[in-house]
Design goal:
Elements lengths: L4 H5 L3 E5 L2 E3 L4 E7 L6 E7 L13 E6 L2 E16 L3 E10 L2 H5 L7 E5 H9 L5 E4 L7 E5 L7 H12 L2 E4 L4 E5 L11 E2 L4 E8 L7 E6 L10 H4 L1 E7 L7 E5 L6 H18 L1 E8 L17 E6 L4 E15 L3 E9 L9 E2 L7 H4 L6
Parallel strand pairs: 9-12, 13-19, 15-17, 16-22
Antiparallel strand pairs: 1-2, 1-5, 3-4, 3-20, 4-7, 5-6, 6-7, 8-10, 11-12, 14-18, 15-16, 18-21, 19-20, 20-21
Helix pairs in contact: 3-4
């Protein structure tokens, strides 16, 4: 089925269900973030004489922009309505297949001497989800891993990913990705004020930042190590930019080595520092360039940004993207950008690494 409004709105957007392709969507939103294991979508159409969309919750679907696959998942929600003033409305919403990892329990047995990649494969296998992991996450081993009763599959995996400094997110094609920050490469185009940037917002919030992060836990005993050596594992990291006494102690709820505790503390420090300042930019279209063959915006890529009004000329990590399409505002992408070292564990967060420092220090914008 082809909707006439697709031609008006640009790239054809289709939802494939049971071998059929449904287009003509007048409203669409798709969001994806490095902080969320699963992306989510919502589609809508108004004013039709009936609902020629035999779509129901629980069905497997693929959302495409032209030939580009944006999401592979399931329909969660279906809502149809009618009133005399606005006519008929249909709304369909869902998430990536990785949403099952977020919602469902893992029932993971005790696992010994396992890498993050192996653990992810063990957890994802019953759900039919493939895992693609960076080489580093196939080498370092955790001595013992066990899920808590009724703990979700993602909660079990997220604990280990955090201490390993791994980003866990969906590829959009139904896979789980375990990647290094920025491993997606570089965007094909820069974001430039006066060129392709429609709207800019800089938000700064230090409420969740601390001057010192301390992770404490226990390592399993061995014939060579026991007692205090394994019962007082600790790692720490500083955020020098905060500049005041404000410690945060985190108790690890699983067995960790000293290196893993240190990695976890460093991860918390840089993640919170990165999340304290967010640059949000809105651009036209869902693709990086105005061409049907150009790539859609993709999380975990590095993007050059030049915003003279905010004294910004640097490279940022694309941490989140929301695609929006409707008949009033047209087709836009809202890009959430964070400092380029975001999610890279470092024992000390240095003030000079903040790309917003010049603007916040009162440097006169150009």
């Amino acid at each position: 089925m082809v909707g006439a409004n697709d031609e008006l709105l640009g790239d054809p957007l289709s939802l494939e269900v049971d071998g059929r392709s449904f287009t003509g969507w007048e409203m669409a939103e798709l969001s994806r973030s490095l902080d969320a294991l699963s992306g989510a979508f919502q589609l809508g159409v108004n004013g039709r004489a009936g609902f020629p969309y035999p779509i129901r919750p629980g069905q497997r679907v693929t959302l495409r922009l032209g030939e580009a696959e944006l999401l592979n998942g399931y329909v969660d929600r279906f809502r149809g309505s009618f009133d005399k003033r606005s006519g008929r409305k249909l709304r369909v919403g869902g998430r990536d297949v990785t949403a099952d990892l977020v919602d469902a329990s893992s029932d993971l047995p005790e696992v010994l001497e396992v890498t993050l990649a192996e653990l992810a494969e063990t957890i994802c296998a019953p759900f039919g989800i493939d895992v693609a992991a960076a080489p580093r996450f196939s080498s370092e081993r955790f001595s013992i891993v066990q899920s808590s009763p009724a703990e979700s599959a993602w909660s079990t995996l997220e604990r280990l990913a955090r201490s390993s400094g791994a980003l866990a997110f969906t590829s959009g094609a139904g896979n789980l990705i375990l990647a290094e920050p920025g491993a997606g490469g570089r965007a094909d185009v820069a974001l430039v004020e006066g060129d392709n940037v429609m709207k800019v917002e800089l938000a700064v919030d230090y409420g969740q930042r601390f001057g010192l992060y301390v992770v404490r836990g226990q390592a399993p005993g061995t014939d060579l190590a026991s007692g205090f050596v394994v019962s007082a594992v600790e790692g720490s990291a500083e955020d020098a930019e905060l500049g005041r006494h404000r410690p945060l102690v985190i108790l690890s709820d699983y067995a960790v080595s000293a290196d893993q505790a240190q990695q976890h503390a460093a991860w918390e420090a840089i993640r919170r520092a990165a999340r304290s300042s967010t640059l949000t930019i809105e651009v036209q279209g869902w693709r990086q360039q105005p061409s049907a063959s150009a790539r859609p915006w993709t999380v975990n890529e590095l993007v050059p940004v030049r915003i003279p009004s905010y004294a910004i000329d640097d490279e940022f990590l694309l941490a989140g993207v929301t695609f929006t399409r409707d008949r009033t505002a047209g087709t836009t992408s809202t890009l959430e950008l964070v400092r380029p070292d975001a999610f890279v564990p470092n024992p000390a967060v240095e003030p000079d690494a903040d790309p917003f420092r010049s603007f916040l220090d009162g440097v006169t914008p150009q």
